[in-house]
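Notes from hallway chat w/ T.B., transcribed later so I don't forget. T.B. wanted the structure written out for a chain they're using in a teaching module, and asked if we could keep both sequence and structure tokens in one place. Agreed to drop them here.
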Amino acid sequence: DNIVAAGTDQYDFDGRQDAWGAQSTLDYVHPVSGKWFFTPKFHGSYSDVLRSNPIGGDVSSGFIDPYRNQYLDFGGEFYFSGPLGNGTLVPQLSLGLEGRDEQIWSGLYGQHDRKTGSAVVHGTVKLDRDLHLELSDRLDWHTYDGLVDNPLGTLVLQAAPECRLHLSGGLGSKLPTYDQLYRPFTDFTNLPAYFQNGYHRFPGSVSG
């Protein structure tokens, strides 16, 4: 059940939950012209997670009654990839579009739906026999964050047959979790005395 719940903000190493789920992926590689390929991919997953522990992921989460979360996640991506020209300078170029829809029905968070769309370009520029530059840019649109640009560049040096050095730089964003978006405020005044003592000694370690 931990594997099913991974990535859904319902992940515990001690397995304090019951969960089940199903997922499927369909992808296909179709040659277009020369060394160029078209790769469509579709995916979907559903999971049902029952939080059976009386407290949250840790003691600072406060006491919460058991609740059920149901997740439905589906989407697709479409990529064209191949060399630019004869491939001497740019041996690999990828152009893609991605879309994703995430829905949640929760006894704690309520019902929500968030969507993500992305335009992606990635290319490899060969600078020398043992040196190449990987450049990529993701232009993401999120329901809650709007439009976000995520460029990335990586210089790769094959210093030896078994030694490869990477130097990377870029900008990126991370989608907020369901906890960050929807978790109700926790009133820590209702914590038992043992946890109250810890809260007053270290208030920075507990947040609502």
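Follow-up for T.B.: The mean pLDDT is 79. Might be a good example for the class.
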